Amino acid sequence: MAAAHLRLRSLLAIAVVVFVVVLARLRGCRAATFTITNNCGYTVWPGLLSSAGSAPLSTTGFALAPGASQAVAAPSGWSGRMWGRTLCAPADGGKFACATGDCGSGDVQCNGGGAAPPATLAEFTLDGSGGLDFFDVSLVDGYNLPMLVTPLGTASTSGSGKCAATGCVAELNGACPADLRVASASSGSSAAVACRSACEAFGSAEYCCSGAYGNPNTCRPSAYSEFFKSACPRAYSYAYDDSTSTFTCAAGATDYSITFCPAAPTSRIRDLGWIIGCARADKKKRVGGPFRGGDGTTVTSCC
């Protein structure tokens, strides 16, 4: 009887160990859940791209009607980016294409294709250095729609420090400088649907942080990047904008909400006319005025 009791205790101990190991592995398999929500008044097609060496997600693209949400689980160690595609439809020959953020797959699923600029990007590295998730919202490749990334979980309830919401909640297409503005050829309208980066628009090493400008000492903010930074101070505005634009949360304890078209505070965009005029002056390598910004604001000086 005593021997049987001892064997039973041993079996229970083994079962507990197995349960703990399986639970740990299950937790490790799901490092975070991304809940993607569309608050825009139009359909958005999220695109998802895993970095090289990262496990693929369950989907690489789908449609989100206005007000709709979809959850996507990501494994431990996952790294990649997400963005919103707009004005999508079957093009000539029946292939799926989008006016902004197109991934070139010809399908709703991006299938390993990245966003064609300009596009607002959310970038993640889960369970990285120091047991932290790293994330940011980047306008380095330009902008096509407002986006907000919000950490969810006990480690993020305070909203302080580097575990905090980030993004670009301002609607910038209407205020985009004329020489960065992108209009949709298919819509037949001159209204802007996206706003290019200065690198994409002009291709110079100074704006692209390449060549002699390929380090943080020589590549500095331009008036064009300041246009984005003033409206969206937590988003990356140029390649070396790390100090104010990278955020971290406890790995495995944090999920993330990604929202397209959150409400935009007017205080963030009221001075964009001044910035646009100065951006145009910056490109022309002169200071003065008057200049007319993308929102119709006349600027007389860039002091």
UniProtKB/TrEMBL annotation:
Residues 1-31 form the signal peptide. Keywords: Disulfide bond, Signal. Disulfide bonds join C40-C261, C88-C98, C103-C110, C163-C249, C168-C232, C176-C195, C199-C208, C209-C219. SUPFAM superfamilies: Osmotin, thaumatin-like protein. The keyword Transmembrane helix does not apply. InterPro entries: Osmotin/thaumatin-like_sf (IPR037176), Thaumatin (IPR001938), Thaumatin_CS (IPR017949). SMART domains: THN (SM00205). PANTHER family: OS03G0233200 PROTEIN. This is Thaumatin-like protein. It comes from Oryza meyeriana var. granulata.
